[in-house]
Amino acid sequence: MISRLILRQPPPNRGKVIKKMATGKMIQFPSRAGKLTNFLRSMHVSMKAYLFLAPFLLFFIFVVVYPVGYAGYLSLFGQRGARMWFVGLSNYSSILTDEKFWQGFGIPVFLLLVQIPAMLILAIFIGLLYERIKHSEVYRLIFYLPYAIPAVIASIIWSYIFSKTMSPFIPLLKFLGFGQVQLITLSCLPWILLIIILWEWTGYTSLIIYAALLSIPKEYTEQASIDGANYFQAAFYIKVPLLKNTVLILFIFNAIGALQIFNETWMLGGVGNFSLMTLPPNYTPAMYVYHQAFNYGAFTYSIAMALILAAIIFIFSFAFMKMSAKVLQSHE
Q1: pTM score above 0.70
Q2: Residue 142, SS3?
Q3: Burial letters for 194-208: b for 16+ Cβ neighbours within 10 Å, e otherwise?
Q4: What is the C-alpha separation between 75 and 303, in angstroms, rounded?
Q5: Which CATH class is domain 105-281?
Q6: Where are the beta strands (DSSP E) in 151-238?
Q7: Domains of the chain: which residue ranges?
């Protein structure tokens, strides 16, 4: 009788079920009431986090998610004037066989292979100089100013510089006996774009590099100097390798900008009062999207083209990040 009463008594730790493992350790598992309490507590914490995120999430939904979703919906239609009809994925299949669209990637690939590496090397060199020269804040401001100028205005400035009638180089060329010289041609335009983009973005990139250099502990370079290394040896063998993550992020951001370049090419060779020449409508992918929408009236086709361009940029960035992560892990 006593043993039955003992068995019927509740366990001393109400709400806890005690089980013994094979190892002999005692582990306490929460009961259903305990699990519900923990769940409600975690939900309370999560709700606070979502309330703080709510303004951004609402803004992101209305500014990014909804426009992209609606654009994807419109890309499923054919369009002629005000009349629209459902075509499914026909626009996307047409773009995949549109040679003009894919020919426009020549300039972005050139910028990826030439302009971006040149700018990163130059920015690293300038960032290292910031550490050595006096009053570097003055030089940082001077180098940053081109980035503060909008790209459209900068392109107009450079269009005057390369104009065959208003260029400041015209008097010098006449003095040297060259007379009327065409400063900008279709063959040299990629190199002119390289100069303009370097002028616009190198100062900003060098500031990012300089900030990354300041985050490197001084103990590294101090130890190297004790071992007999000079500044340049410590810079190129210690500091520059530690910049790999910063350089990787800068490369991806600039690659995204190169793939969707539009302002500079449009102001130099688009249809406008400041254009120095007439470029093919598919000189860059973004220009071809613009021409399809506003010159040819194929708005739904241009929307599908823009979404494919965005998908290409996303796939390139994601694949490059994955490959870079594997390379960095292999060297650690």
Answers
A1: yes
A2: helix
A3: bebbbbbbbbbbbbb
A4: 6
A5: mainly alpha
A6: none
A7: 32-69, 105-281
